[in-house]
Amino acid sequence: MIQNALIPEKTVISAKGDGPAVEIMGGAGHAFLLILSITRIVEQESLEIGIYGSTDAATWDPKPIATFPQKFYCGEYPMLLDLRGHSNPRFIRAHWEVGRWGRGTETPMFECSLTLKEIPSEVLNQAHAAKALA
């Protein structure tokens, strides 16, 4: 089972950037639970995170596989990353954009992390079976 950090714990983000490439070989064609945890912010700023795929960790798809809605507050935000319908990327990484407006410093500041955990296929199969019975 794959479990990794797309953004390491307590990472401080103040400009756009990219997380490390994470190999999901063996996870391609599966589903993952992403948990974005924002632990510290300043007021009047936004964070957008997209998940991008690659077959070689050098050339990244131009469009994200998944995107978190824009975030403005501290909290934990889960999202399902379902790769079963995608072209089987071997690597994924997070890319973030930040914005800041209003008074005070113009530099945004987010302290956050983004974890990735594979969802076992048995769990997905049970969920699909339960949905079909409903």
Q: In sequence order, what are the helices and strands, one letter per element?
A: EEEEEEEEEH
Classify the fold: give the CATH topology. Jelly Rolls
Number of helices: 1
Share in helix: under 10%
Strand content: over 45%
Please report the total strand number as a whole number: 9
Quaternary structure type: single chain
Derived structural class: mainly beta
Mean pLDDT: 87
Based on the model shown, name its key terms.
9 strands, 1 helix, Jelly Rolls, mainly beta, 4-stranded antiparallel sheet, single chain, 5-stranded antiparallel sheet, 134 residues, globular
Structure description:
The protein has 134 residues and is mainly beta. It has one domain (3-133): Jelly Rolls (Sandwich), CATH 2.60.120.1110. It is built from one helix and nine strands, in the order βββββββββα. The chain has one helix spanning 121-133, and strands at residues 3-13, 17-18, 22-23, 31-41, 45-54, 66-67, 75-82, 91-100, 110-119. Strands 2, 3, 5, 6 and 8 form a five-stranded antiparallel sheet that branches. It starts with a strand and ends with a helix. The model has no long low-confidence stretch (mean pLDDT 87).
Q: What is the secondary structure topology, with strand pairs?
A:
Blueprint: E1 3-13, E2 17-18, E3 22-23, E4 31-41, E5 45-54, E6 66-67, E7 75-82, E8 91-100, E9 110-119, H1 121-133
Antiparallel strand pairs: 1-9, 2-8, 3-8, 4-7, 4-9, 5-6, 5-8
